[in-house]
Specification:
Largest sheet: none
Strand content: under 5%
Radius of gyration: 56 Å
Distance between the termini: 177 Å
Amino acid sequence: MASRRALQIGGVTVVAGGAYYLYSAGGNPSVAEKKLERDASTTGARLQGKDVSGKEAQKKGELLAKEAGATLDRTVDSVRHDISKADKVITTKMHEAGSKLDQVKDDGTKKLDAAYKETSKDLKETADNFDKTVTKKTSEAKSGISSWLGFGGK
């Protein structure tokens, strides 16, 4: 008897449901059938945990947007960090290059000064030797000429 009663309740429910869809479709059976299929699909998706209603879609969209925003923020932060590191490396390398340039300049200046001093020393020695030689030779020439002319002191 319970089985018969369940069949009667099920039958009444099916007829009432059909009447509802036919009434909401304005008496057009094909539109009522499409509404029934859409509702059945939505109900099936809800039962399977795949609710695609507008609110659920909006929530999923917001969640995806937040995840995408977080990923974008992480990427931007990573790029900023990499740029900062590169800037520090470039600054360090520039300072190192400047120090090396100053060192090379100082070494070059020291070598040039040393070469100048050495050349000056050699030039002065050569000039002094020339002057001594000229003075000696002049002295010898004077005594030679004086002795020819008879002025030499014997």
